[in-house]
Structure formats: structure tokens, C-alpha cells
């Protein structure tokens, strides 16, 4: 079996999330924490109940301070080097839930510098993706009055003075060990973690506050923020609080990370026909060889991608359990579960695409102005 590797620039092998919890030194989001969240927010998001957001750093501390009447702000980001897919969408829809529930500010970083430095793409190509990706983030429906986009190269004037303070406290040996760098990595990529660290505390500097920062992210981003937490503490800021999401599996199954390439996932710009085709053709099935055998023995929900993806899109626990139950008994066929999934996804996409159409007219509303 391929060795498990999880960092922002490389995800390989079967991802074992229990092992990640111990290797990363993060904590699982347990029953007790879910109860606390429910008490404060009035409900728990299905992604929490279903362990899609499965781990955290210091979430208890943030809840303690919230219960004392202190606010917090949200920070997340997007590396613009390709189209947005359902994996991004699911994380951001959780971020939107948090913003709506708590009525708080969201700082959204577009790391065009990062993608230029790390990818084999031109500066102009990255700028095009930045615009395309901003449209998708706007289409998520974040509160425009409380959402602030930072584009690293465009907001360098406010980010850079803080980034150098961060960078001065990180050694090359830390970066090399965290990301597996060698002598041939370019020097911009060595500096980059400093840029991604700044929004953890920049809002507090701008607004003269000392609020907690909560960062919902895909777990592969944790290595950056492990470094950030160490440094911002030394700079006199609160350490950011993190909530980690599992990866949405690729259509082909396994527990890797979905990417925008080929037929591995569904893009936010895919039309209904493409969605249907991709899922019917590529979603790994946990069904049996023949209908007769499936009816007799039932399907395997754990490996069936349509069943697993429904965790993201069927919010009703009762309905989901019913589907799982019927599928494992053989009453539902793989094709039938796929049909349910296709309908759910196409509904989400058609609404998203409507909102995305005029999103570029709203750039100005979302881009941060000092
Ligand atoms: N590095 C992230 C990416 O490649 C983008 C990003 C910047 C980010 N800041 C973040 C992601 C904060 C999560 C949280 O996609």
C-alpha cells in the first residue's frame, strides 16, 4: 500500500484520519464538544454530526471566550490555480453556516502568490483563476457586508509589513521539515507560509481588537498553521483556532483528496448532463456484479461513492439512514442511489451557477479596502 502523506503540497495514499489526529497532534471533535456547539448555535451542522469536520485545535478555548461574550472572526482561503469543485464548496458552505449562525466577519485570502510560486503556471494564468475563483466564492452567498477578500499580490501593501514580522521568526529548517523541501525549492515558496499566517491576526491589527480567529480548512492545510500558531503566539497575538475537514473522496473512490483534474470530481461549472455522466460513469460502486446478487447480498455503503457523497448533500439524517439501510439490504441499486445524488447535486449547481453569473459585478463589494 502507498504510504500516507498529507501536507499542503502533497496528499498520497489511503488517508487514515485517526492516525492523522495523532501524527498532527490535533483533537477529535467529540460528543461533548458537539453538545456545547449545539447549545451555543442552536443546532449542529450535519458535517459536524457526520465527522466531516472531524478535528480541531483549541476550539474549547474559543467557545469559552464566546460564552463570556467575546466575538471571533473567520478566516479561510483559496489557492487559485484551477476550477472550484464540490470539495471546496462543501468546506465553504460550512463556513457560510458559521458566518450566518454567529453573524461574524469572514476574511477570505486568495493566494495568487502561492500558486504562482508552486505551480507550473504563468502569472497571468493565475490572475485569471483568481477572478474565476472569486466568482465562485461570491456565489456561495457570504454576507457582503461582513466578508473581506484579500488577494496576496493586490493587498501586499497591508500584508507584507506583517508577513516580515512572521517570517523573521520562522527558520528555513522548520519549513524544510514541514513541507519536505530540498535545496532546489525556490526561495519564494520558503517565505510563503508567512503570507498565509498574516490573516490570522491582521483583522485585529486593523480594528484594534484581540478576537479569536477560527479557521475551517481541509486537513492538508494544517502544517502551515502549526507554524503560524507557534509564531503568532510569540508576536503577542492569540493563536488561531482550527477546524479540520476530511477530504471529499474522488469519484473513483478511496480516501484520497479530490482534485479538479479530469473526471475525478464535479466542478461548480459543470452542467446537468456532465454531472449525470460523470457520476454514472466514474463514481465507484459498492454494488454487486449482478442485480440478483445485489438484491440477495446488498451493497457496501462504505466503499460506494454515491452513498458517501450523500453525506455532504442529504442533510436529513432520517432520509440518509433510510437510503443506507435500503442499499445495504439490496433494496436500492447503485444506479438508484446515483440518481438521488445526481438530482441533489444538480439542484445545488444550478442555483450556484445562477448566482455566479453576475458575480464579477460584485468584486468591488467583497474586495477589502483599507
Ligand atoms: N493554501 C490554500 C490553498 O492552496 C489557500 C489558503 C490560504 C487557505 N489561507 C487559507 C486555506 C486558510 C484554508 C485556510 O488552497
Layout of secondary structure:
Layout: E1 5-7, E2 10-12, H1 17-24, E3 27-28, H2 31-41, H3 46-49, E4 53-57, H4 59-67, E5 72-78, H5 86-102, E6 106-110, H6 112-118, H7 123-139, E7 147-151, H8 156-167, H9 172-179, H10 187-197, H11 202-207, E8 212-218, H12 222-234, E9 241-245, H13 272-282, H14 291-297, H15 305-313, H16 317-329, H17 334-357, H18 363-366
Parallel strand pairs: 5-6, 5-8, 6-7, 8-9
Antiparallel strand pairs: 1-2, 3-4, 4-9
Helix pairs in contact: 2-4, 7-17, 8-10, 10-12, 13-17, 15-17
The protein binds tryptophan.
The site of tryptophan has 13 residues, from β5 and β8.
Brief digest:
The protein is of the alpha/beta class and 370 residues long.
Explain the overall architecture.
The chain has helices at about 15-25, 30-40, 45-50, 60-65, 85-100, 110-120, 125-140, 155-165, 170-180, 185-195, 200-205, 220-235, 270-280, 290-295, 305-315, 315-330, 335-355, 365, and strands at about 5, 10, 25-30, 55, 70-80, 105-110, 145-150, 210-220, 240-245. Helix 10 packs across helix 12 (about 220-235). The chain has about 375 residues and is α/β, with parallel strands linked by helices. A 7-stranded mixed sheet has the order 3-4-9-8-5-6-7. A two-stranded antiparallel sheet has the order 1-2. The chain is globular and about 65 Å long. The protein has 2 domains: about 5-250, HUPs (Rossmann fold, 3-Layer(aba) Sandwich); about 270-355, Tyrosyl-Transfer RNA Synthetase (Orthogonal Bundle), CATH 1.10.240. It has 18 helices and 9 strands. The longest helix has 24 residues, at about 335-355. It binds tryptophan. Tryptophan (TRP) binds next to strand 5 and strand 8.
Amino acid at each position: 500500500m502507498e504510504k500516507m502523506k498529507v501536507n499542503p503540497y502533497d496528499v498520497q495514499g489511503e488517508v487514515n484520519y485517526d492516525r492523522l489526529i495523532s501524527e498532527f497532534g490535533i483533537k477529535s471533535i467529540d460528543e461533548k464538544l458537539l453538545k456545547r456547539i449545539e447549545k451555543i448555535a442552536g443546532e449542529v451542522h450535519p458535517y459536524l454530526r457526520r465527522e466531516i469536520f472531524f478535528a480541531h485545535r483549541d476550539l474549547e478555548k474559543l467557545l469559552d471566550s464566546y460564552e463570556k461574550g467575546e466575538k471571533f472572526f473567520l478566516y479561510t482561503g483559496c489557492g487559485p490555480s484551477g476550477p472550484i469543485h464540490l470539495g471546496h464548496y462543501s468546506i465553504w458552505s460550512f463556513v457560510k453556516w458559521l458566518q450566518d449562525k454567529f453573524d461574524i466577519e469572514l476574511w477570505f485570502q486568495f493566494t495568487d502568490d502561492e500558486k504562482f510560486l508552486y505551480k507550473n503556471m504563468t502569472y497571468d494564468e493565475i490572475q485569471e483563476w483568481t477572478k474565476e475563483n472569486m466568482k465562485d466564492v461570491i456565489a456561495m452567498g457570504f454576507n457582503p457586508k461582513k466578508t473581506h477578500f484579500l488577494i496576496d499580490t493586490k493587498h501586499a501593501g497591508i500584508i507584507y509589513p506583517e508577513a516580515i514580522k512572521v517570517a523573521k521568526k520562522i527558520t528555513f529548517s522548520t519549513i524544510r521539515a514541514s513541507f519536505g523541501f530540498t535545496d532546489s525549492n525556490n526561495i519564494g515558496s520558503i517565505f510563503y507560509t508567512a503570507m498565509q499566517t498574516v490573516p490570522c491576526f491582521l483583522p485585529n491589527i486593523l480594528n484594534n481588537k484581540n478576537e479569536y480567529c477560527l479557521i475551517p480548512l481541509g486537513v492538508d492545510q494544517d502544517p502551515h498553521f502549526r507554524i503560524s500558531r507557534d509564531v503568532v503566539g510569540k508576536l503577542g497575538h492569540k493563536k488561531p483556532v482550527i477546524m479540520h475537514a476530511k477530504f471529499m473522496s474522488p469519484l473513483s473512490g478511496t480516501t484520497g483528496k479530490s482534485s479538479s483534474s479530469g473526471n475525478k470530481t464535479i466542478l461548480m461549472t459543470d452542467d446537468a448532463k456532465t454531472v449525470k455522466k460523470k457520476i454514472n460513469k466514474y463514481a465507484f460502486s459498492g454494488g454487486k456484479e449482478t442485480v440478483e446478487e445485489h438484491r440477495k447480498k446488498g451493497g457496501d455503503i462504505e466503499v460506494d461513492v454515491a452513498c458517501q457523497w450523500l453525506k455532504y448533500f442529504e442533510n436529513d439524517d432520517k432520509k440518509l439512514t433510510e437510503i443506507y439501510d435500503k442499499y445495504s439490504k439490496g433494496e436500492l441499486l447503485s444506479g438508484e442511489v446515483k440518481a438521488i445524488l445526481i438530482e441533489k447535486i444538480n439542484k445545488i449547481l444550478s442555483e450556484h451557477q445562477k448566482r455566479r453569473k453576475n458575480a464579477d459585478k460584485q468584486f468591488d463589494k467583497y474586495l477589502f479596502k483599507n
